Amino acid sequence: MTASRPHRRQREHAASWTRSAGATLALVAAGWLALQISAAAEGEASDVEGLPIVRIVCARFDVFDTSQPQTSQWFYRAANSLHIVSKESFIRSRLLFKEGDPYSTALAEESARVLRELGFINPVEITARRVDGGVEVTVETHDQWTLEAGGAFGMIGSQEDWRLEFQEKNFLGLGTKAEIQYGSNVERDETLIGYFDPNIGASWWQMELSYADRTDGFRELARVQRPFYALATPRAMGGLWDRDHRVDHLYSEGDSVVSGPEQSETASVWYGFRLAGGGDVTRRLTLGLDHRHETFSDWSWEGTGSPYPTPADRLIDGPRITFELVTDNFSVLRGFRAWSIQEDVALGPNFTAGATFSAPAFGGDIPRLLLDGRFDMAHRRGNWLYLGEASIEGRVDDGDFQSWVAGAWVGAAQLGRRGWQMRLLADVSRDLDLDRQLTLGADIGLRGWDPNYFDGCGRAVANVQWRALVKEDLFQVLALGIEVFADAGTTWDARVGPATGGVRFDGGVGIIGDLTTIGLANIARIEVGFPDDGSGPTVIVSTSALF
Q: H-helix or E-strand containing 507?
């Protein structure tokens, strides 16, 4: 979303921003220092570690196990008949090992993560046993439903979105995604055609193509890349083209109050390589060239049509460098966001920092330095999972700081059939571009108010909820649960609408539907939140989760 009037109380909050940004950077530095001075304990090797793999057995299962009485009826068999099980050749192409390689527990665990990342294979179990001459590895995969033909509907307060779609996420069992979609939301109607191949020619090269025709413009995207698909991947490369024409909006009390055309053009190429070093830490460096051109015109107040200060155009051209640190510290969980499927959580600590240098000599409009960074980590203790993330981004335009946003969130969740979940999130900014704002509402976590209800250049929100699984296998497609929640939030330095004017509260109840055969992205939530001003309930129908 976007922003509005120049920041009138910028100096009053500069010190607050500096303290918050300093705390964020201190958190990043502390995590980095902890990583450098801590040594990970090495696990004891299993009795098959290092033995040669003499055979790989792929045990592939369809969406429903029709050999079981509860899923033997005709409609389960009919569903399976409409679904093509992932091909063995495709499964093997995603493994990080092959026959003849020495068996590695770490590579087996990472291969399972690679398969789950596809989004339509879950659960995945990879096991090994000793046989004559070495090790036999069994890769057990369970397909989820990948054909979507019909519609979808979402609602957050007064804002609704719906779509009609035909989508196959695993065409012919080869992992290819093809989709045709027509959708409508509060900002635009859109017809989209998309294609994604994660495995071009059984390689690790990927291709993504999409085109969207909109009532307020269009978007075209093309991406070809060979990513860092595993921790040990020595190099990555790729290119991107993305052109996006649309009408952008600024919001107040859930409604668009300022709008104007925005045209953006992005292109980049990059080459990355893994830096030397061993142990549980992978360090990567990526070098590339970035091009970004953003133009704005004729912004105005809706209703009156009076002019609104049009954001300044930006032309960014120059080299980019990114450093990434990934810790081989993952946990496979159940009962975190979803109840039924495996979820891979990166415990970290992980760190990313990037810089783009733009100047007229490279084709940019003025000298600019773009910086961004992110730090995250998690810790499991018993049936509790603790998580945190900090990030910062912004520019230095010809010596002036511009559009800096620093944010952090921490959370805790009880794993299992029932328990508490809590989160605290805060974002602060300095000299936001006129096309940006930091709003607060049901979409950010203040579930008693419409999305984008409260305006600001800073925001904070706290959430607490208790949830419980009521029915684990409803018709073998749904795990059904309930939740009770309370939220509190505040914004400050409004740009085009009212801030919270203090701390606002809400509370409510909800139903959670974990669609067990469709995937993590299809956790259906129906929530009703009651704001503290007594204005009536806000209804949320969505697939998003608290974390």
A: strand 504-515
